[in-house]
Amino acid sequence: MDYLLGIDLGSTNLKAVVYDVNGRAVASGSRPTLRFNPSAEHPDWAIWKPEQIWDSVAESIREALSAVPQPANIRGVTVTGMGMDGLPMTEDGNWLYPFISWHCPRTLPQQRWWIEHIGADRQFSLTGTPIWGFNTALRLLWMKEHEPEILARAHKWVLIEDFVNYQLCGRFATDYSMASTTLLFDQRQRRWSEELIAASGVDGRLLCEALPSGTILGEVHGRASAATGLAKGTPVVLGGHDYCCGMLPTGAFVPGVVLDVTGTWEMVVTALDAPILDPAVGRLGVFVDSHVARGKWTVMGGAVAADMLEWFRREFGSDERRKAEEQGGSDWTHLMAAAASSPPGSRGVLFLPHMSGASCPVVDPTSMGALVGLRNFVTKSDIQRAVIEGLDYQFLDIIEAYRRGLSVSPERIVAIGGATNNEFWMQNKADVVGKPIEVPALDEAVPLGAAILAGIGSGVYRDEAEAFATVRRPGRVYEPDPALSSRYRESYETWSALYTAIRPVHTQLHSQPAGH
């Protein structure tokens, strides 16, 4: 029997999952992703140690392969994971400095320089990328300023997925979706931007060759075979950014299909036939990146989501925790039952979910959360429901921004992530947006998407469409209640006015010390 291997480099865990060619998980291995704080002088600095990344990936692969009778039956291996984090390497494959984690704030001065000298609008018009403090190019500027001798010895700056690929097959390369995270990739030409390289002073020779996802990079060599248990000669196929890979087994590589990935953050992504790089679109806080699907681009907007439910659970969920201890089950079950007991509209309470600032489609780090409409008959259950409804209005707000700014209308919404286990939340989201929401029967879409690319590169699947037809796992569909959707549409108009109405107060509060 033939198998495919997907490797997912996450900020929490490093996973290796073996799939059969029908997309069923056969075995997996996992190790924690360990973050280190290397400097007593700078306690907020954060790194990943390359030896820990590689050793843990190798151990995870060995664990996953323990259930495969013949490792030679692995038709291909592909790596996916987080973007932006990279490190300098010599031509013979030695690393010279650890990965600077995306958690690390050391490049904020370089971010300010980039905004001042290149500018957000010009940046987006070339690359489709907002300027975030941990973008790859800013790490290169930091190294140039603080570790110039190390950078001078480097042959290539290698992103974390590409580092694992190099360890497997010995080739330096990256894919278009990962190149999109660097601030230096021209989305129209799909090549490194000479203009941005010249304007920033980044050494262009350090950038790896950029290729389409699904390209065969090489074969597992002897050292990697000994470390991982993979058969020598196993094809290593170029993967891509994690959220793009998650779009493959959900069908979101087709324009009009919207993928909603909800956990601590909610990421709303869809495919485009061509990049839309109008700076006005960039001001919505979205990314327009190259897709891992051939000939496609993605648009992605995100906002903090479940973190606010966790806040409510932590601060106000003591009764539900006690009920769970006495009656069994989870406190979430009791919390959601309480929210469902409140009528739609939460007795007039509205929640603005900006407790961590606003990122899309409103970009305002000074904005704050708010509960509005509190009266003396409002209950805790009403407030809980208002928090859920506020998160779902935020989702609808992103959808409406896509409709207005990019002429993208959802023909189909597919949801994955931890929030899909919450039936009340998912049903309410369908009611608020007024569209059916499909939750496919997939445990983890991201490593499966990587395995699909391994299958496309090695010839198991002809293309993305054939792969999706093969691995698709239809699940539950949440159908909206038309009467509720009409009511929520009216309430959404009121909710949409909250940010502008409260903004002056939040601006004033933000200028005051916490606890003032």
Outline the structure in words.
The strands form 7 sheets. Strands 18-19-17-16-22-23-24 form a 7-stranded mixed β-sheet. It contains 20 helices and 24 strands. Helix 13 packs across helix 14, helix 14 crosses helix 15 and helix 16 crosses helix 19. Helices cover about 40% and strands about 20% of the residues. It has 2 domains: about 240 residues, 2-Layer Sandwich (Nucleotidyltransferase, domain 5); about 220 residues, 2-Layer Sandwich (Nucleotidyltransferase, domain 5), CATH 3.30.420.40. The chain is globular. About 50% of the residues are buried. The N and C termini lie far apart (about 65 Å). With about 525 residues, it is an alpha+beta fold.
